[in-house]
C-alpha cells in the first residue's frame, strides 16, 4: 500500500479500520464513506479507495451499488466454514512452530499458562485471559515463520474476533481452553510437531463444539 499525503500509510489506515470492524466498533451493516474517512485520516480519497479494496479482499466489507462500502455480516454457515479452515491452519502453524523453534523457547509461556492463566480462569478475568491467548498466537505465528500462513490466519481472525471472545465467555470454555493450550505448549516444549498439530486442531474443534451448543447466544 502507498503513502497518504500526511505521511500515514494506507496500510496504517487499513489496520485501524480492521480493528474497528473486528472489534465491532463498526458493526455489520455499517457504511464506510470515502469522503468521511478521507477527512478523518487526512488522506486522499484515492488512498481510501485503496484501503477499501484491501478490506474487500479480506472479506470484511462489500461494495454495493448506490450504498458504497458496507461491513459484512457473517452468516452461520460462513462462521462454521471459517472454523473448518481455521482448524487446518492453526494445526499447521503449531506444527511449523514445533519444527522451527527451540523447544526451550516455550518455557516462559508454559509458566504463564500454568500460573497466571489459571488465576484468570478462577477469577473469570476474560480480558487478561484473551490478552495472553493473543500473545501465544503471535508467538506461534512468528515461530512458524510463514508469511502466507500468517496472512491467512490474520484474515480469518479479522472476521471472527468477536465470535472468539463470545465463545471464551461461555460456561466452562475458559477452563477447557486452558487445558487444551497447555497440551499444545507441552508438545512444543517436547519438540513434537505431530502432537503440537494434533493439540492445536483439537482446540479449534473444541471451540467449534461450544459454538454449536450455544449457537443461538453467540451468532
UniProtKB/TrEMBL annotation:
Domain of life assignment: Bacteria
Domain HTH gntR-type: 7-74
UniProt keywords, alphabetically: DNA-binding, Transcription, Transcription regulation
Gene3D superfamilies, alphabetized: GntR ligand-binding domain-like, Winged helix-like DNA-binding domain superfamily/Winged helix DNA-binding domain
UniProt-listed InterPro entries: GntR_C, TF_FadR/GntR_C, Tscrpt_reg_HTH_GntR, WH-like_DNA-bd_sf, WH_DNA-bd_sf
GO MF assignments: DNA binding; DNA-binding transcription factor activity
A Pfam family hit: FCD
Keyword Transcription regulation appears in the UniProt entry: yes
Name this polypeptide is given: GntR family transcriptional regulator
Amino acid at each position: 500500500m502507498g503513502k497518504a499525503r500526511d505521511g500515514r500509510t494506507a496500510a496504517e489506515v487499513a489496520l485501524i479500520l480492521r480493528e474497528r470492524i473486528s472489534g465491532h466498533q463498526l458493526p455489520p451493516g455499517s457504511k464506510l464513506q470515502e469522503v468521511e474517512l478521507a477527512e478523518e485520516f487526512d488522506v486522499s480519497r484515492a488512498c481510501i479507495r485503496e484501503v477499501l479494496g484491501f478490506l474487500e479482499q479480506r472479506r470484511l466489507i462489500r461494495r454495493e451499488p448506490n450504498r458504497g462500502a458496507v461491513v459484512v455480516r457473517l452468516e452461520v454457515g460462513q462462521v462454521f466454514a471459517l472454523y473448518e479452515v481455521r482448524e487446518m491452519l492453526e494445526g499447521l502453524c503449531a506444527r511449523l512452530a514445533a519444527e522451527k523453534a527451540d523447544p526451550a523457547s516455550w518455557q516462559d509461556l508454559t509458566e504463564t499458562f500454568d500460573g497466571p492463566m489459571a488465576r484468570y480462569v478462577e477469577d473469570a478475568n476474560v480480558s487478561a485471559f484473551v490478552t495472553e491467548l493473543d500473545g501465544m498466537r503471535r508467538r506461534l505465528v512468528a515461530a512458524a515463520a510463514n508469511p502466507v500462513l500468517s496472512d491467512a490466519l490474520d484474515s480469518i481472525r479479522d472476521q471472527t474476533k468477536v465470535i472468539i471472545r463470545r465463545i471464551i465467555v461461555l460456561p466452562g470454555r475458559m477452563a477447557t481452553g486452558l487445558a487444551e493450550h497447555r497440551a499444545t505448549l507441552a508438545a512444543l516444549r517436547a519438540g513434537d510437531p505431530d502432537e503440537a498439530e494434533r493439540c492445536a486442531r483439537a482446540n479449534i474443534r473444541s471451540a467449534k463444539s461450544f459454538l454449536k451448543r450455544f449457537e443461538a447466544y453467540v451468532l
